[in-house]
Amino acid sequence: MRLLLVNPNSSKDITAQLARQARACASVGTEVLETTGAFGAEVIASREAAELSAAAALDAVQREARPFDAVLLAISLDCGLAALRAHCRVPVVGLSEAALLRALALTERAALVTLGTAMRPLYADMVAGYGLADRVPWVQATAMTAVQFRADPEGGLAQLRALVDELRQEGAGAVVLAGAVLAGYAPQLQQGCAVPLIDAIPAAVARAEALMAAVMTPTGPAPAR
After folding, report:
1. What is the side-by-side strand order in the sheet with 2-7?
2. Are 212 and 70 in contact (CB under 8 A)?
3. Which of 63, 83, 84 is nearest to 72 (CA)?
4. What pTM, to 2 d.p., does this model score?
C-alpha cells in the first residue's frame, strides 16, 4: 500500500522529518511517498498562510505522477482537507483530525496544544469545525513559536511540559501535540507528563492504513486517481 504524505508548506526539511516519522511507525507493506508544496510559507503563522497552504496541498496532489492508495495531509491545521477529499478517489487523512480522534478514544475530554499564541484562534476554529469543541475545550499554545522551537527545541519542550501539567490539573485526560515541527517529540516530552500525549503522525498513519485496508479488493487497490 502506498501512502502519499503531502506537506503543503514549502519546507522540505519538515517534509523529510515528517516522512521519517511516518516510515518509522508504518506497518510492513506500507510505502510512504513524500511531496512538498511548490509555493507558500515554510511555516504557517497566519490565516492567509493557511489558505495558501490549502491551495498548495491540492496542487501537490494534482501534480503527483506516482500511484498512491491514500493521502496523509501532513499539516497540523488540516488545510485543504475537504478539497482533497472531494478531489481524490482514495482515503485522505488529516493530521490533526486523526490525532483528535485518537485522543478522544482514550478520554472523554482532551486538550490540544501548539506553538505560538497567535495560532490559538486558528486551532480553536479547526476543533469547532470538527464539532469537537465540547470534548476538546482546551486549545492552548506556548509563547514560543514554531520558528523559535526549531532553533531551541529544549526550551520549547520545557514550555510544553508546563502547559501540559496545567491542562492535566484542569481535567484534560489526553493532550494532542499540534504542529508539524513537534513530530517525533512525544516520547521525549511524555517523560514527566502524567497524561497521554498524542503524536499526530502515528495517529494519522494508523488511520490511513486502516482506511486503505478497508478499500482494498481481492484483485488490488481502488484506483488512486
Report:
1. 31-36, 2-7, 70-73, 92-94
2. yes
3. 84
4. 0.91
Distance CA 144, CA 99 (A): 22
- 12 — phi, psi (to 5°)? -70, -25
Grid cell, residue 79, equals 488545510
Give Cβ neighbours of residue 2 (< 8 Å, ≥ 6 apart).
Answer: 30, 31, 33, 66, 67, 68, 69, 70, 224
The per-residue pLDDT for range 143-171, each reduced to its tens digit, is 999 889 989 999 999 999 999 999 999 99
- Low-confidence stretches of the chain (pLDDT < 70) are 217-225
Query: Cα angle vertex 24, ends 30, 43, to 5°?
Result: 100
Radius of gyration of the chain (CA): 17
Cell numbers at 218, concatenated:
481481492
Residue-wise pLDDT tens digits, 190-204: 987 999 999 999 999
The closest of 107, 53, 74, 94 to 183, measured between CA atoms, is 74
Number of residues that this document lists for the chain: 225
